[in-house]
Amino acid sequence: MFAVTGITGNVGSVVARMLLAEREDVRAIVRSGAKSTEWEEQGCETFVADIRDQHALAKAYSGMRGAFVMLPMCTLEDDDGFNLNDVVDSIHYALREGKPERVVCLSTLQSLVDKSASSNAFSYLESKLGTLPMPLAFVRSAWYVENSAREVAEACETGVLRSFLYPLDRAVPMIATADVGRVIAQTLCETWSGKRTIEVVGPAQVSPNELAKVLGWVLGREINAEAVPRERWEQIFSAKTQSTNLYIQMLDALNAGSAHREVAGIDRRTGHIHPEVVLNDLVARALTWP
Ligand SMILES: NC(=O)c1ccc[n+]([C@@H]2O[C@H](COP(=O)([O-])OP(=O)(O)OC[C@H]3O[C@@H](n4cnc5c(N)ncnc54)[C@H](OP(=O)(O)O)[C@@H]3O)[C@@H](O)[C@H]2O)c1
Questions:
Q1: Phi, psi (deg, nearest 5) at residue 28
Q2: Predicted pLDDT at 155
Q3: How many domains does the chain have?
Q4: How does pLDDT run across 58-86, given as a tens digit for each residue?
Q5: What is the CATH number for 110?
Q6: Ligand 1 pocket, residues with Cβ under 6 angstroms
Q7: Cα–Cα distance list, 44 to 54, 102, 117, 177, 179 (Å)
Q8: Which domain holds residue 26?
């Protein structure tokens, strides 16, 4: 059986569905019983564990053939006294004690890591989990096309696609989360020894202008990209959680122009899903939301 953390999210849900499609048993780790039903209906065993509860999480990973782990981005609150490094520590403890046979951990491309940030959760995640004894794969993902969901919904109304990435004509590595989930599910089903790193990028690098153009095709109207000045971000990302800081750190790293460099010796996978497929989906969701 495979344990899937973040199963209600973009990547975890794809990991679980792909494993189920391969007739593998899946343990869905959810943080509240209310989220269990959908996954039980799909044939998963559910296990309630908050990612910050290291003891519950250790039980969730215990006896598993493999575990998928990730650092959630936007749903951890600061006021509970936890920061992202504490979450990494909790995951580390749970894997060490739970001893799943192998682990696949979602991480991010080096070009998305803001070296100027005093603490970087992804660097800490990789160094801390890297000390674990079991076979472990870091899947370093490009920027998600789905990150623009909110801005796509706005653009359907306004014709303007706001962008936190700039310059608007600079292409950066992007990927559909379904491609990330597919690579993770495939990796979980493999056997290996030691540590490995896999980079996943989409079929092409994409600039904000290109994204706006593709959205225009999807909507059948002209859409223009517009950069959101850095000084307005604080106001827009009003919830000042550690996780929001992580998101901003990733944006700053991309905007600082640390171009993505291919690192020798790293296993590299290219996704199949083009941005228009994701944008079609985001538009459909935006138009059906109340
Ligand atoms: N954004 C990028 O471009 C990018 C690039 C590279 C890597 N990443 C990595 O990908 C992650 C985002 O993946 P995603 O889009 O699949 O995430 P997502 O859709 O935001 O889903 C987050 C998942 O984590 C769960 N979760 C949140 N807080 C939890 C807690 N306290 N205990 C247990 N579960 C909890 C959520 O459950 P609920 O349904 O209960 O909220 C949800 O299932 C980022 O956090 C980052 O680590 C992101």
A1: -85, 120
A2: 97
A3: 1
A4: 999 999 999 999 998 754 555 466 678 88
A5: 3.40.50.720
A6: 6-12, 31, 35, 50-52, 70-76, 106, 108, 112, 141, 143-144, 147, 177
A7: 22, 19, 39, 21, 22
A8: 2-288
